[in-house]
Amino acid sequence: MTNRRLAQIERRIEKIKVELAGMGEMRPGSLTRQYKDPETGSGPYYQLSYTLDMKSRTEYIRREWVSDIRRQIRNYKRFKKLSGEWITLSIEHSRLA
Hints:
- There is one protein chain.
- With 97 residues, this protein is an alpha+beta fold.
- The protein has two helices and three strands.
- The chain has one domain.
- A three-stranded antiparallel sheet has the order 1-2-3, covered by helices on one side.
- The longest helix is centred in the last third of the chain and has 31 residues.
- It holds the Pfam family DUF6788.
């Protein structure tokens, strides 16, 4: 059982490495649409808020960049998930080996 589980862990870690290597640009944060006048919905603009090096930041995002920013945020979330899984699997592997 242990050898089979070790092999499963090693295969999954290799798949994670391949997926991480193929990732494109990424950035943390959340993208929100803001309005100058919320009641009428006039003047929508986009804000990206994130924390980096323990410092909160907010950037204004051009409308034409929104789809790229959303993709970068998705990539970052996927990166965090995969790297967390990799760490968990590595700990399990070291305990079984």
